[in-house]
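Final report, closing paragraph on structural work. Over the funding period we assembled a curated collection of sequence-structure pairs, and we close with a single example.
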Amino acid sequence: MVALLVRLVVGQGIIDRGALAEAIDRASLRLEAARSAADEHRRLAIDDARIALSAMIASLRKPAE
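Its predicted structure, as stored:
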């Protein structure tokens, strides 16, 4: 469906093929940056959860007698 739309738009001369390729490249770079940021956010959230869990376990330990 998208390929058909691209062919129609480029074929009709509405958008230059080079401009379309450039727009796709920019969109791909933005998508990759977003994925990278999401991966980093997930790693930080996991680290925070590990720290919180460790603190919770430490608080539940019985004091040494």
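The mean pLDDT is 86. The chain is about 85% helix and 0% strand. We thank the funder for supporting this effort.
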